[in-house]
């Protein structure tokens, strides 16, 4: 009788270059493939916001559909569990005599704790004469492995220090793993499990209750591969540095981030295609800058591992707390794109409609929230977590700390001159007009003044 194994998909919704999946398939022939949807992620308990919003869940849903279709072609199916991940995984292991669990090593501290909790619970079962369960996990959404990166205060002091460590020591990016289609175990195994999961379509009906105005991308490994291939088949990489700060335009930036966040494609796969492009078309400052941005993403991953819960702390790594608070009315206007700043309004309305915003736009609106509206940065980070299709725990919270001046960068926060940014990036007002950034009655920001007297709004 074959031993049964479980692969738990998380933020690695792909079959190719999925390191723990490949490791599992090399050692087990009877594998169940599982994804857990946690209802708690759809309740507003994260600074009054949901952990997963409509746009991101649509992309997750599409990624799961794609993953299931690929598994079906290999004689398998994806099992969807619905509930608290620790409980659901534990019950699945017990009911199906699972001998091994494999998953990607998590970056976020709370995801790490959940994984450790499951290991602890299963270890307790082993002490009660249950069969021991093996665990397989490894870094799966970074360019480098843990043994390649020296996480110490000097290396991680800033991005520049990290980049110099990587480039100066010539640390090599590991190339993507072999195609999973070459592994016979996956194609010949047949797992019979007592829990066949719940209907993904019914959960989609439950959690995708609001009609979406615009679809920015379609999630899934196949969509990711097509997009990355098309991008590197164009001339866009050779002019990336000149266009990357544009507020609009599909080809102005790579648009890799949604697929990286969902795990539809690995950073190693993108790095390899970048190097292939440079070998054929020549390297220049723009192609270097694509790699530079991948290193920024990498830095935030390892910095999050070092910071742990401090990544979410109001004070962060700063010596003093920010001089900000929470003003509900101001925050609501910021979220809705109803501030005195047309460019900020346009960016926020684009985010609400599409789940996406340019990198330059994110810096501008974050600076506005923290420095112009004096609002606690964590509420902005939580709103981004809910809204963004490319939400990544390390990049999102790390970037917000960077703007607020409580992160790793020793030079303090970043305040952007909104009028200057408007002149630089939307001089003709086309982006503002497209997203209706001009609003009426944007001032005053609050309906009461500093002594709690009502403020009259001019008609």
What can you see in these coordinates?
By secondary structure, the protein is α/β, with parallel strands linked by helices. It folds into 3 domains: 1-140, Rossmann fold; 142-173 and 221-311, Serine Threonine Protein Phosphatase 5, Tetratricopeptide repeat (Alpha Horseshoe), CATH 1.25.40.80; 328-434, DNA Cyclobutane Dipyrimidine Photolyase, subunit A, domain 3 (Orthogonal Bundle), CATH 1.10.579.10. It is built from 19 helices and 5 strands. A 5-stranded parallel beta sheet has the order 3-2-1-4-5, sandwiched between helices. Helix 2 links the parallel strand 2 (30-37) and strand 3 (78-82). It starts with a strand and ends in a 25-residue tail after the last helix.
What is the level-2 CATH architecture name of the largest domain? 3-Layer(aba) Sandwich
The CATH superfamily label of the largest domain reads HUPs
| pLDDT < 50 stretches | 182-191
Q: In the CATH scheme, what's the topology name of the largest domain?
A: Rossmann fold
User: Given this structure, which CATH class of the largest domain is correct?
Assistant: Alpha Beta
Query: What is the terminal separation in angstroms?
Result: 79 Å
Helix content: 40-55%
The DSSP helix count reads 19
Taken in chain order, the helices and strands follow as: EHEHEHEHEHHHHHHHHHHHHHHH
Widest β-sheet, arrangement of strands: 3-2-1-4-5
Biggest beta sheet attributes:
5 strands, parallel
Mean pLDDT: 90
Radius of gyration: 23 Å
Overall number of domains: 3
């Amino acid at each position: 009788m074959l031993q049964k194994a479980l692969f738990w998909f998380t933020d690695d919704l792909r079959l190719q270059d999925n390191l723990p999946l490949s490791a599992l398939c090399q050692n087990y022939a009877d594998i169940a493939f599982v994804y857990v949807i946690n209802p708690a992620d759809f309740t507003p308990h994260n600074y009054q916001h949901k952990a997963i919003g409509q746009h991101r869940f649509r992309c997750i849903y599409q990624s799961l559909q794609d993953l299931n279709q690929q598994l079906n072609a290999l004689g398998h199916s994806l099992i969807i569990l619905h509930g608290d991940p620790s409980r659901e995984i534990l019950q699945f292991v017990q009911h199906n005599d699972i001998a091994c669990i494999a998953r990607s090593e998590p970056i976020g501290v709370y995801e790490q704790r959940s994984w450790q909790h499951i290991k602890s619970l299963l270890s307790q079962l082993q002490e009660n004469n249950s069969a021991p369960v093996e665990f397989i996990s490894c870094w799966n959404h970074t360019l480098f492995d843990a043994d390649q990166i020296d996480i110490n205060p000097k290396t991680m002091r800033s991005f520049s220090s990290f980049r110099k460590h990587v480039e100066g020591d010539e640390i090599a990016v590991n190339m993507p793993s072999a195609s999973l289609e070459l592994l016979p175990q996956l194609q010949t195994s047949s797992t019979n499990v007592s829990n066949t999961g719940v209907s993904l379509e019914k959960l989609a009906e439950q959690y995708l209750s609001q009609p979406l105005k615009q679809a920015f991308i379609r999630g899934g490994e196949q969509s990711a591969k097509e997009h990355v291939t098309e991008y590197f088949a164009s001339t866009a990489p050779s002019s990336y540095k000149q266009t990357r700060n544009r507020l609009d335009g599909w080809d102005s930036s790579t648009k890799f981030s949604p697929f990286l966040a969902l795990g539809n494609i690995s950073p190693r796969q993108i790095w390899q295609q970048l190097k292939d492009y440079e070998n054929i078309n020549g390297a220049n400052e723009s192609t270097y800058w694509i790699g530079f941005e991948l290193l920024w993403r990498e830095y935030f991953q390892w910095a999050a591992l070092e910071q742990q819960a401090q990544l979410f702390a109001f004070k962060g790594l700063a010596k003093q707390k920010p001089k900000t608070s929470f003003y509900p009315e101001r925050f609501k206007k910021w979220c809705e794109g109803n501030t005195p700043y047309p460019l900020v309004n346009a960016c926020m309305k684009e985010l609400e409609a599409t789940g996406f915003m340019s990198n330059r736009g994110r810096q501008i609106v974050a600076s506005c929230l923290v420095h112009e509206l004096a609002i606690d940065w964590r509420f902005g980070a939580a709103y981004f977590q809910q809204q963004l299709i490319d939400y990544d725990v390390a990049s999102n919270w790390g970037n917000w700390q960077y703007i607020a001046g409580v992160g790793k960068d020793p030079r303090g926060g970043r305040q952007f001159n909104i009028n200057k940014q408007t002149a630089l990036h939307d001089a003709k007002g086309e982006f503002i007009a497209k997203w209706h950034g001009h609003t009426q009655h944007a001032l005053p920001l609050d309906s009461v003044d500093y002594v709690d007297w009502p403020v009259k709004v001019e008609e």
